[in-house]
């Protein structure tokens, strides 16, 4: 394994090489600067965990499309499945005709999602669309306006999801007013327990803040949804302790609020189920 890794990294030019520099200049001219560019690697092809750039350099990919390519780049079984589908047809729209593939995927997700009850899957184009729909469904179901979210959370860049997202400076600065009826509470960070406080005391304090907020910030009868990432992603890859999640479950059950857990690594479960 070690030898393979060593052989996988081969540098023929500086990064970026001449061909890469040319493409990067075209990127600057043709695409908006809004999406940050964190490396100067210009990819030509990729297999497994190895990326080859347009100058012939090969590099190890530690990003994997930011956690989206959990099965590695272009594994043959995925590529062949895509090819098989393209040979049949590309798209007809589920509103116009019924296609079996999305049903198969929904059945798989319904099977592996936790819980022993009948489930349905809403397939979306992006995480932001998933969050927007989850909130819309919760508001429609409860006929209530408010949403509770947490500090450090990332929920996307559309107008609603930006409003739900925490970090102000990085994501929201300069974009003007945001959607109303959103209430933000601190989430416990067990890696940063305040000095002089035991972990248990800190957790109890964070849990107590939920009850406080339902008096001082918003009445529970106005809350449609509580939205949380069980592992804060953008917020620092911080797991939310189980007693805190249990408290949210209890509050939601007590007041008829929809509890929404956003998980960005569902692909891991799919990978394990497919045996990839
Ligand atoms: C937890 C979570 N919610 C929402 C999003 C937004 O997803 P997208 O960029 O696909 O709109 C992300 C993306 O990183 C995410 O990690």
What does this structure look like?
With 276 residues, this protein is of the alpha/beta class. Helix content is 43%, strand content 13%. The chain contains eleven helices and nine strands. It has helices at 2-8, 18-30, 64-67, 76-88, 100-112, 127-142, 159-164, 168-172, 199-216, 242-255, 266-274, and strands spanning 43-47, 50-53, 58-60, 146-150, 182-185, 223-228, 231-232, 238-239, 258-261. The protein has a four-stranded parallel sheet. The relative contact order is 0.10. Residues 266-276 have low confidence and may be disordered. The chain binds pyridoxal-5'-phosphate (PLP).
Q: Which cofactor or ligand species appear?
A: pyridoxal-5'-phosphate
Spatially, the strands of the biggest sheet line up as 5-4-6-9
Shape: globular
Q: What is the element string, with H for helices and E for strands?
A: HHEEEHHHHEHHEHEEEHEH
The chain-level mean pLDDT equals: 91
Count of runs of 4 or more consecutive helical residues: 11
Largest sheet: 4 strands, parallel
Helical content class? 40-55%
By helix and strand content, what is the structural category? alpha/beta
Which residues form runs of ≥5 with pLDDT under 50?
266-276
- Measured between the Cα atoms of the first and last residue, the distance is 19 Å
Task: Kindly provide the radius of gyration, computed on alpha-carbon positions and rounded to a whole number of angstroms.
Answer: 22 Å
Beta-strand content bin: 5-15%
Q: What oligomeric state is this? A: single chain
Number of strands: 9
């Amino acid at each position: 394994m070690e030898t393979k890794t060593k052989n996988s990294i081969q540098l023929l030019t500086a990064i970026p090489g001449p061909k890469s520099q040319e493409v990067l200049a075209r990127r600057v001219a043709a695409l908006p600067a809004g999406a940050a560019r964190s490396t100067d690697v210009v990819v030509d092809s990729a297999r497994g965990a190895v990326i080859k750039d347009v100058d012939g350099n090969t590099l190890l990919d530690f990003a994997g499309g930011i956690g989206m390519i959990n099965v590695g780049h272009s594994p043959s079984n995925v590529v062949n499945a895509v090819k098989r589908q393209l040979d049949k047809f590309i798209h007809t729209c589920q509103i116009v005709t019924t296609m079996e593939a999305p049903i198969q995927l929904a059945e798989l997700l319904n099977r592996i999602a936790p819980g022993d009850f009948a489930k349905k899957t809403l397939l979306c184009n992006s995480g932001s669309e998933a969050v927007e729909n989850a909130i819309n469904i919760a508001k429609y179901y409860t006929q209530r306006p408010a949403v509770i979210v947490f500090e450090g959370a990332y929920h996307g860049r559309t107008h609603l999801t930006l409003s739900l997202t925490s970090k102000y400076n990085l994501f929201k600065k300069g974009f003007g007013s945001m959607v109303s009826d959103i209430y933000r509470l601190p989430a416990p960070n067990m890696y940063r327990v305040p000095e002089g406080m035991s972990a248990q005391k800190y957790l109890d304090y964070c849990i107590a803040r939920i009850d406080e907020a339902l008096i001082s910030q918003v009445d529970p009868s106005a809350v449609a949804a509580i939205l949380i990432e069980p592992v804060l992603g953008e917020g620092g890859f911080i797991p939310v302790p189980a007693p805190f999640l249990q408290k949210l479950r209890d509050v939601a059950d007590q007041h008829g609020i929809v509890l929404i857990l956003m998980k960005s690594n569902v692909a891991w479960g799919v990978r394990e189920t497919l045996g990839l």
